Carbonic anhydrase (Diplogelasinospora grovesii), 233 residues
Amino acid sequence: MAQEQDPFLYALSSNNAWAGYKAHQNPQFFPKLASGQSPAILWLGCSDSRCPETTILGLQPGDVFVHRNIANIISPTDINTSAVIEYAVAHLKVKHVVLCGHTACGGAAAALSDSRVGGVLDTWLTPLKAVRYAHADELNAIKDDKARAVRIAEMNVEAGVKVLMANMTIQEAIKERGLQVHGCLFDISCGKIKDLGHGTKGGEAPGTSDDVVRGKHAQLVFRGGNASMAVRQ
Ligand SMILES: [Zn+2]
C-alpha cells in the first residue's frame, strides 16, 4: 500500500498539475484572469467543504464572487457579509446574487439540537435557532431527522433572502439595472442545485423565461426556476 501523502503537499502538487493543465489547454487562461475580474454571480453559501461553489456550478475562476460562512447565515449587521455584498453589487456589478443552502448541513443540525456547540458557535447560529423556534410546529411534525434538517435549511435560505431584499445596495441595483436575487438549495446526495423560488423571481410562473449567465468558459442557464450549465465552445 502506498504511503499516505501529507494533505497539504498533495494539494500543492495537485495545484501544480492543474495550473499546467489549464495553461496547456488555453494559453490565454491565466493572462486573461490576471487582467481583472468581472464575475456575473455573487454566491453566498455555506463553508462546508462539500459545497465549493465554482466547482459545483461547473464554472471557472473569475466567474463567481464568493462569501461563505457556517450555515450560510445572512445577518444585516455582519460587516463581513455586508462588505462582500457592497463590493460585488455596487462595484463589480454582478447580475445575480445567489444565496445557497444545502442538505446535510451541520449548522442546520446544530440549530435543531438542544445541546450547546460551544465557543462562539452558539452565538453565530442564533439566527438559525430563531428560524427553528418561529417554525417549531412545522419542523416538529417532520419525523425524519434528515428531512427536518433539509426543511430548516430551506427556511434559513428564505429568511436570508428576505434580509438580502431589504439591503439598500441590493434594492438600488434591482431598481436601476435589474439585479436578480435567488434562493437555492444544493442537494449533496445528487449534486444538483434547486431554485427555491424566493427573491426577485419568486412567484413567477415556471418556464416563462431563460436567464443566461455567460462565464468565460461556461454558461449557466436559469430556466423555470432551475439552474443548468452548459460548457461554452
Ligand atoms: Zn452547511
Summary: The mean pLDDT is 91. The domain at 39-206 is CATH 3.40.1050.10 (Beta-carbonic Anhydrase; Chain A). Residues 108 and 129 are 9 Å apart (CA to CA). The chain has one domain: 39-206.
